[in-house]
Amino acid sequence: MTDTTNSTPEEIKIQTKDLRPKKSRTQAWDGWRPGPYGPPSAPSMERRIAEESALEMAAISGHGRQDGRARKIRPRRTVDIGGSMARWNLMRSLKTCADEHYFIRPCIDHLVEFLPPQAYPRNPSTSILTKYVHTSTNKVRCPINIVRFTPDARRVLTGATSGEFTLWNALTFNFETILQAHDTAVRAVDWAKSGSWLVSGDNAGMIKYFQPNMNNLQVFEGHKDSVRDISFSPNDSRFVSCGDDGLIKLWGFEERREERNLVGHGWDVRCVKWHPTKGLLCSGGKDSLVKFWDPRSAKCLATLHGHKSSVQACAWNPNGHIVATGSRDQLIKVFDIRMMKELVALRGHKKEVCSLTWHPIHHDILTSGGSDGTILYWCLPESEPVDELEFAHDGCVWALDYHPLGHTLVSGSNDHTTRFWSRGRPGIKIANDKFHIGKEQAAMGRDLAAGKMKWKTPQSKGGGGGGGGGGGGGRGMSRWSTNINIGGADVTGELDEFGREIPPQNKDTGKNW
């Protein structure tokens, strides 16, 4: 110890300063240890956790909004089939019987046991996609003419009348990218069977080649008028296109050269599809004819007079034996090419049929879209629809496409929206309308938009002026009012703000009757 008896205060201060522990310059500061002059600091967070915390705090405090209000954190709905696929692969590896079948229990508790459509080959009802999932809309609103899943099924490609290609995530349905692909409306798109090329046609008759990364490599004039449909051959060496100039053209893909010109339709050719495995073409036109062509000789093999109006769409069944055609006469005809005869006529649409597609797994299921926004599901050989999505869209359903695994359906419409549909949960009944609220309420909502219903604001409870809430009265609730004709008598009904019917009250008892 140092003797400080006869030392001055200044000497004592210097000696005390020398007794303090000296920190080495090479010693790194450890946040877990308390410093000599302050409390211990918390450990540093990972960058990802710090960013998530900052986003949550910004959403709670309202940063990023001009009005300063807090943002609502809404979970995004996803449709992930990975878990059911893994479970099905495990069950297939462990099963002991070759003809073992899987069953679905009608209970929500058994949702984890819901397998993909491939697990139910003899039960096509598991692939009726009536559950509304999500609506995707471009910032620039315009009709959607084309919807197609990419070959890897990770994204959905949409083509609009603005000439833009938009890519949406097929799992979370959020926006990914957009590009100006054409100068006019996109009318036709088809992926090569290999998945390495995309061919598209527009309203000006131009045909373009794209890579999967949406890099445009080639562009040339294919038709003098609008291109209506494009379809690849099974080996991707050729593709066929049709247009409003009344021609069907066969192109060599690599040479970009017109090989043959198929002439036979007397008017605009609206659709053409190549057979899944054979050298056979099917086309439909505005002359109400369905024609089959040999692409090698450019000759018409057969002509079917099954429709009374313009043929809008045609689609080959994956088995290659039957083809479906949809027309403006509100009918869907299914033909067997082995006999060149009509198998069944499907009646159910109230207006013209605009789009057709077959289920990739259950080949008996056919899905069609109409000009009134309705989507119908058919299960052959039944001639009546097995399910109906009334008011699925507010406009014409121009395009439909299935996920390659068959658990998701995407639709594009004239109402500027792209909508996704999936399988319902087992044991839960789904109403057959757009938002699953019932046909009557959906019809009332459409009548309101058309101006057929009146908006009524009753007086507030507790006195006061009328309207949404008068002075001295409680908060009023707005109601829907409509006149319904029952048995020749007009009955006035009221709906609350949720669209539910309000029962009338008995004046004597004051109770609902």
UniProtKB/TrEMBL annotation:
The keyword Repeat applies. Its main location: nucleus. PROSITE patterns: WD_REPEATS_2, WD_REPEATS_REGION. CDD domains: WD40. Residues 10-21 have a biased composition (Basic and acidic residues). GO terms for cellular component: chromatin; mRNA cleavage and polyadenylation specificity factor complex. It is found in: Nucleus. InterPro entries: Pfs2-like, WD40/YVTN_repeat-like_dom_sf, WD40_repeat_dom_sf, WD40_rpt. WD repeats lie at residues 220-261, 262-303, 304-345, 346-388, 390-422. The keyword Nucleus applies. Residues 461-476 have a biased composition (Gly residues). GO terms for biological process: co-transcriptional mRNA 3'-end processing, cleavage and polyadenylation pathway. Keywords: mRNA processing, Nucleus, Repeat, WD repeat. Residues 1-44, 455-513 are annotated as: Disordered. It comes from the Eukaryota. Required for 3'-end cleavage and polyadenylation of pre-mRNAs. Also involved in chromosome segregation where it has a role in chromosome attachment to the mitotic spindle. This is Polyadenylation factor subunit 2. It comes from Melampsora larici-populina (strain 98AG31 / pathotype 3-4-7) (Poplar leaf rust fungus).
